[in-house]
Design a protein that fits this description.
This protein is mainly alpha-helical and 99 residues long. The protein contains 4 helices and no strands.
Length: 99
């Protein structure tokens, strides 16, 4: 670590020690952020891993629907990716001139 960075780090800790309000605010912000991230991760992780309530006789139809959705998603992804890739090759100034 360079001497300038070490000096800046010492200065930051010294100044942080003077302002208790800032310290409490920073700690509270970090705690709220971590709690929010934990809650969102738990909710998102629980939704896809929960077994679906599909009767045994409906499973083949459900599987077919799932495969159709996957194909549709793949086609839509390619259909949006190709124009976006072409758009990145256009010079912005030339695009504005064409309008």
């Amino acid at each position: 670590m360079s001497l300038a960075r070490l000096h800046n780090l010492r200065l930051a800790f010294r100044l942080a020690g003077r302002s208790k309000t800032f310290d409490v605010g920073a700690a509270l912000t970090l705690a709220i952020g971590m709690a929010g991230a934990t809650v969102m991760f738990t909710l998102i992780r629980g939704i896809p891993l929960r077994p679906l309530r599909v009767a045994a006789e409906d499973r083949p139809a459900f599987q077919q629907t799932w495969e159709d959705d996957a194909r549709t998603f793949g086609a839509a992804s390619v259909a949006t990716w190709l124009p976006a890739r072409r758009a990145t090759r256009v010079d912005p100034i030339e695009g504005l001139r064409a309008e």
